[in-house]
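Incident review: delayed structure delivery

Summary: a single-chain prediction request sat in the queue longer than the usual turnaround. Root cause was a stuck worker, restarted by the on-call engineer. No data loss occurred. The affected request and its eventual output are reproduced below so the record is complete for anyone auditing the incident later.

Affected input:
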Amino acid sequence: MNRSCTDPICCIIFLAFIVSLVAITGYAVSNGNPYAMITPFDSNGNKCGMKDQGADKKIDFTDYKYKYFYNLRSMAESAGAGSVDPTEWFKSECVKKCPA
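Output delivered after worker restart:
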C-alpha cells in the first residue's frame, strides 16, 4: 500500500487558524472596549463603575461599582407560583456598596 504523511498539511491549516485568531483578538482589543463585556449594567442601561453615562454622557457612575438586584428574594419565593411579574424579577441598580 502506498502511504503518505498528511499531517504537515493539517499542521499548516491549524497554524493559519491560530494566527488568524490572534490577529482578530488583537484587532478587537485595540479597537473595542473589552471591559464592556464584563461590566455589569443596571435596568436603565447604565454601566456600573464607568463614567460618561446617559444620553448626554454627563452622568458619572465611577463611585457606583456594584449591581444590586431588588427582587431576587421574591423571585425565589414565588418561583412557579406566578404571583410576581417575571419582568420585575431582575430590576437592578448600580450602588456604592452592597446592602447589609
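Verification: The first helix runs from residue 7 to 31.
Action items: add queue-age alerting; document worker restart procedure.
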